Amino acid sequence: MQIITDPSQLQQTCLQWRAQGQRIALVPTMGFFHAGHESLMEHARTVADKVVVTLFVNPTQFGPGEDLEAYPRDHDRDTAVASARGVDVLFMPAPGTMYEADHATWVEVPELARGLCGLTRPTHFRGVCTVVLKLFMLTLPHMAFFGQKDWQQLAIIRRMTRDLNVPVHVEGRPIVREQDGLALSSRNVYLLPDERRQAPAIRAGLCLAADMAARGEKDTATLAEAIRTYWREHLPAGTEDYLAFVHPESLAPVTRMDGQVLCAVAVRLGKARLIDNILMGS
Ligand code: PAF
After folding, report:
1. Of 54, 68, 96, 241, which has fewest CB within 10 angstroms of its CB?
2. Domain enclosing residue 201, as ranges
3. Residue 65: its pLDDT value, please?
4. Does 128 contact ligand 1 (Cβ within 6 A)?
């Protein structure tokens, strides 16, 4: 596995691969790999000739007071994991190489970025879109893989890619979970033991609502209340950031179950802010 730290070298490498007719898959990450990242790498390995994993804790997607400095990092372990997964290039940009001092260009999808995580992280998706488009330009991938845990991010990247005619196939991959249902996240390391014990209740609440919907409940306010009641008992240390029923593509709020509906949540648990989601209805 080649480690590249210089953005232009990455672009040159990928341009050469393209000229040779190689199909390139990109897995963009912020590192501190867990089994969710590994499943993206593994999948990329099966469908592409060349797999590029980028590891960059992108400062522009963190707001003031967020965990940019504290975000967990372990480059040695990440390097070993990526290499074991058969990654061809691990891109870890050297400090200061991703954004010029006078960087002035931003990519936004405001309609999809206002709700859900955007309510408390108003500049987050502008940073995500901008860095993802930069990574697309640096790696010129045929396809790029993202986890479905960050459903809003995925919906926004899909829309950006469509609207700007970016020739990249964007694919969401299933959420990887602990045995007790907690969605894997690099931020799970922030959880104290008691918080970790309560955390699976996030998912359990979502499953409870999905069961009610499967049995015919149509009113999303009733489903939301059932989740909150469950959380009050099983997740007393958690504070709801948002709990929303939305259309899976447009992310517009949904009040009646009709077709597929996404229930997306964010919960603050100690120092962690955990997100999860479930698709329900048919
Ligand atoms: O999901 C992430 O890890 C990040 O938001 C991404 C897509 C790598 C952009 O920095």
Report:
1. 96
2. 186-280
3. 94
4. yes
For residue 144, is it within any domain? yes
Pairing label, strands 238-246, 89-91: unpaired
Q: Is 75 a catalytic residue?
A: no
Atom of ligand 1 nearest to the CA of 58: 10
Long-range contact pairs involving 220-229 (C-beta distance under 8 Å, separation at least 24): 220/245, 220/254, 220/255, 220/256, 220/257, 220/261, 220/263, 221/255, 223/257, 223/263, 227/263, 227/265
**pLDDT tens track for 60-69:** 999 999 999 9
Largest CA distance in the chain: 58
- Tens-digit pLDDT profile for residues 109-150: 999 999 999 999 999 999 999 999 999 999 999 999 999 999
Direct distance between the N- and C-terminal alpha carbons of the chain, in angstroms, rounded to an integer: 43
Q: Is position 138 within any domain?
A: yes
Percent pLDDT > 70 in the chain is: 100
Task: Kindly report the backbone phi and psi dihedral angles of residue 190, in degrees, each rounded to the nearest multiple of 5, phi listed first.
Answer: -70, -15
Do 270 and 210 sit in the same domain of this protein? yes
CATH of the domain at 58: 3.40.50.620
Residue 37 annotated in ligand binding:
yes
Alpha carbons 169 and 143: distance in angstroms, whole number: 4
Reported as a pLDDT band with limits 50, 70 and 90, residue 282 is confident
pTM over 0.90? The answer is yes
Task: Verify whether ligand 1 is closer than 6 Å to residue 28 (CB atom).
Answer: yes
